[in-house]
Amino acid sequence: MIRADLYENTIQIESYVTSQDCSACGFHSRSEFLDNLRAGRLQPSQCKMTKMRFLPLLWGARPNEILPDVQVFQHPSPSPAGIVPVNQPKKNSPVLVSGNSKLTVEVMTAVLSTTSSPFWYLVVDTDGHTVDMAMVYETFTSKRVVHGIKQINLDQIAPDATLFLPGFAASIREELSGKIHHSVAIAPVCAAELPLFFGKTLWQVA
Known about the structure:
Number of helices: 9
Structural class: alpha/beta
């Protein structure tokens, strides 16, 4: 089996680590702390920080702890498009936007299973392409995102929400912002970074 590249190497975990994190685990430097975290030598019980803080750092340093082992698809593999409510989202809960590749949905489902926070998960029809390939084949466009928004009537169910585009789709942000009423932000390229990106306020560890 050829494992799919989930872009774990794009996670810049150093930017999330504080001196308090290092000292909480008994280390004097960021590099020493990260070396031990990446090597799997640290467990939550060994550090004086909450599990809610420790686990996102672990997942950022060791993405394989959270990401499923998925196979490369030789051809597009579509899954249903639409909106998936996660943990009883409200009208202002964040909207995570992604494509309708089965691989992408599997990865996003695995990552979202780690939180008890409310989200909307908007799956846009990209003809079954993963987001990186959808940008190449131009099947992840502002037009398709707008179509997905209208299909599920997002203006009614989440009028105050911010849309978070996957990192690879950053180039369509400006155009999309001019077409919808919602604010549009850019999420990380790798889904394993989402717990760190949103932080403990918006990503309560389940």
